[in-house]
């Protein structure tokens, strides 16, 4: 921590479409009990008109948990914030960072960085509606609006509305010419500007995000900002997070082994399958549990081949564990 200002967390796992669903979050909770977790982005129309149980349902074991919203209408966002509070979420986050064409066509995501007043009105409306923290995830900048002064203008305006935390993806986004995947890798990282933002606004909670792939990097960033969000690394090498609780949250308990993590999921799998769910909906998130370890190819192959079969159940995971050495 760079200040004495209390923050609700030090580390978080980023909201990632088609990745951070309820099954992945439950899986990660077997590895770290402390990191802040996020849903995938859920749009305002989906919540208002869709199946809320499917969109918003989660296990209490996943908490602390943030609902990330996609939208731009202050009144509708306030309604969704109330729904989030009723469902038991710990925080509501507004997506001002996604650059996809679909998101832009709905007039939300990264394109809102060009309209800080609109974002401020949305944050203010949500703050009036709920007592939960309301936060914003945004980019360094967009297109040619990417000077440090532009980001300062955005943060100044939105902070005045009561935003509780700014999570900054330390890359700009090109709204035309790059797809979402390219926008995660092509624009260069500019973490120094996020560090500078914290120095400019010492009273604000500032979190940095983008390209972070080791706990040593996390430590370095925490010398400059209040919190660190990690993304694809958490999905590609989830067990790297096993020492987070001890290293950053001073939890004296030893980290669980990979085998213990998988074994702890067996009752969850049994319940999910008994309720009509498909095994592969969960096991697709487990493929990288043994990344870099002997037997990982056999683990991934067996889960991939067997989990999609009719009536596949937790016995598939139990058998896959026999294919991987347990130190």
TrEMBL record:
Its cofactor is FMN. Residues 13-313 form the DUS-like FMN-binding domain. It is an enzyme of class 1 (oxidoreductase). It comes from the Bacteria. One of its GO terms (molecular function) is flavin adenine dinucleotide binding. FMN binds at residues 15-17, 68, 137, 169, 209-211, 231-232. It catalyses: 5,6-dihydrouridine(20) in tRNA + NAD(+) = uridine(20) in tRNA + NADH + H(+); 5,6-dihydrouridine(20a) in tRNA + NADP(+) = uridine(20a) in tRNA + NADPH + H(+); 5,6-dihydrouridine(20a) in tRNA + NAD(+) = uridine(20a) in tRNA + NADH + H(+); 5,6-dihydrouridine(20) in tRNA + NADP(+) = uridine(20) in tRNA + NADPH + H(+). Its EC number is 1.3.1.91. Keywords: Flavoprotein, FMN, NADP, Nucleotide-binding, Oxidoreductase, RNA-binding, tRNA processing, tRNA-binding. The record marks 95, 181, 184 as: Interacts with tRNA. Belongs to the dus family. This is tRNA-dihydrouridine(20/20a) synthase.
